[in-house]
């Protein structure tokens, strides 16, 4: 073993530099991928400036009017332009963002919404089962109706799912969520 004290000054400086670089990297890595900023950073810009606040809060449109699959299937799904046109056929047709929606509708071109909430592929999830038990959307997604732009308020760590399953006597066998 070489003793630190016996190293040349240059070697100490180099080792000190490498040590500091590694420590800085670890701290930054923690802050961005584990700490609070991880979630805040996940607020993608959407192709159309659609606001949940305007629709679900100001105009009290029920979540499941647009997310129609939620109670019936695994997926909640995001509505297509036809659903928007139910109202925007008459509401705010002159607004530039609505003109974009109309163009998608008329050209039969899907709007490419960017996914916000996501689970790793090895986890199985079903909306239907939870909605049948009256778990509110907000329990898992946060106050979506207050958001102009949806941000990821939950990164769905295993503990989040398991804690509630334990409290409510829902299944906790590994294969409930891992297939
Ligand atoms: C049930 C009716 C309804 C549906 C369905 C609906 N909207 Fe709206 N939307 C409204 C109302 C009401 C407003 C507020 C209009 C106002 O400010 O006067 C609005 C406003 C908007 C605006 C803001 C327009 C502006 O610049 O002021 C956008 C953009 C928009 N909607 C996009 C969408 C999209 C995209 C969809 C489909 C995913 C959709 N809307 C579905 C009723 C609806
Ligand atoms: C007028 C239609 C409409 C209504 C009402 C509506 N949504 Fe949405 N929702 C959308 C659209 C369009 C998107 C995709 C664009 C975006 O993320 O903003 C979306 C995206 C989402 C997402 C993110 C999906 C993803 O990519 O991970 C969640 C979660 C969500 N909505 C929950 C809700 C909840 C909860 C409510 C009720 C409080 C609600 N929505 C009401 C149209 C609607
Ligand atoms: C028990 C937790 C939970 C509840 C309750 C819940 N969601 Fe989700 N939601 C999730 C998870 C987890 C995902 C990510 C699924 C994936 O990536 O496979 C998701 C994804 C979504 C998406 C993205 C598209 C999709 O289907 O993957 C939308 C939209 C959405 N949820 C809307 C809603 C709405 C609206 C409600 C209430 C009617 C709701 N969710 C209730 C956990 C929940
Ligand atoms: C707020 C409480 C709550 C949260 C959070 C929650 N669950 Fe559940 N989950 C339940 C309840 C209640 C049931 C219904 C059990 C039943 O039908 O008896 C359920 C059922 C399920 C089922 C169906 C089980 C079956 O075989 O019937 C799956 C899969 C599941 N949850 C996965 C998840 C995953 C993955 C997450 C995290 C992303 C999650 N849950 C978060 C309460 C919750
Ligand atoms: C109620 C749902 C649920 C149950 C039950 C469950 N898991 Fe998970 N598990 C998850 C979710 C959600 C993730 C994804 C976490 C993430 O994104 O990091 C996960 C991730 C994992 C991972 C990947 C490492 C990690 O932390 O991301 C392993 C390994 C794992 N689970 C093992 C198990 C084992 C073993 C059991 C049974 C004792 C079990 N899980 C039961 C929901 C569940």
Q: What ligands are attached or bound here?
A: heme C
Q: Alpha-carbon distance between the termini? A: 49 Å
The Cα radius of gyration reads 24 Å
Give helix % range: 40-55%
- The geometry reads as flat
Any overview of this molecule?
The protein is mainly α and 179 residues long. It has two domains: 32 residues; 100 residues, no CATH class. The protein contains ten helices and no strands. The radius of gyration is 24 Å and the shape is flat. The N and C termini lie far apart (49 Å). The model has no long low-confidence stretch (mean pLDDT 88). One heme C binds next to helix 9 and helix 10.
Give the topology, please.
Blueprint: H1 9-33, H2 37-40, H3 52-58, H4 63-66, H5 81-88, H6 96-106, H7 127-132, H8 137-141, H9 158-167, H10 174-177
Helix pairs in contact: 5-6
The site of one heme C (HEC) has 21 residues, from helix 3, helix 4 and helix 8.
Short description:
The protein is mainly α. It contains 10 helices and no strands.
Write out key terms for the chains shown.
179 residues, mainly alpha, 10 helices, 0% strand, flat, binds heme C
